[in-house]
Specification:
Blueprint: E1 5-8, H1 14-30, H2 41-44, E2 49-56, E3 59-68, E4 73-81, H3 90-104, E5 109-115, H4 121-129, E6 133-134, E7 147-153
Parallel strand pairs: 4-5
Antiparallel strand pairs: 1-2, 2-3, 3-4, 5-7, 6-7
Length: 154
Amino acid sequence: MTDFTIRPDPLESKDVLDLLQMHLAEMHAASPVCKVHAMPAERLREDDVAFFAVREGSSLAAVGALKALDGQRGELKSMRAAPEFRGRGVGRALLDHLIAEARARGLSWLGLETGRTQEFADARRLYERYGFRECEAFDGYTSDDFSVCMGRSL
């Protein structure tokens, strides 16, 4: 696996904002508007979210965030690899980091909402390899033909 550098990011650089915009556009292309729960940069900068950028040298490889739900639970948000880094282990590196961050913050449960359709199959497989399983909808989400909530204890 490649050595990646993962650091908190203020969401100000063009490459980070461009990758987030691509992520949002893809979510809107693959899901009905009411099922797009990806957060824009403004929301990802708020105090209840810790946002991270993954780099290989100076190249942006991926982004992802950890959102606090309450004192015991957190949620993965906006995990997205840059297209040229897909299949190179960046998703695993980022997920390892976010799980470690959640544990360091004293969280006992981590959840996520993702798509149920074929476009999201790779993401679901990655989460399943890390012990995430389909769970009851949480924090205002619904599970249906387009969305699935997944969670795991830490």
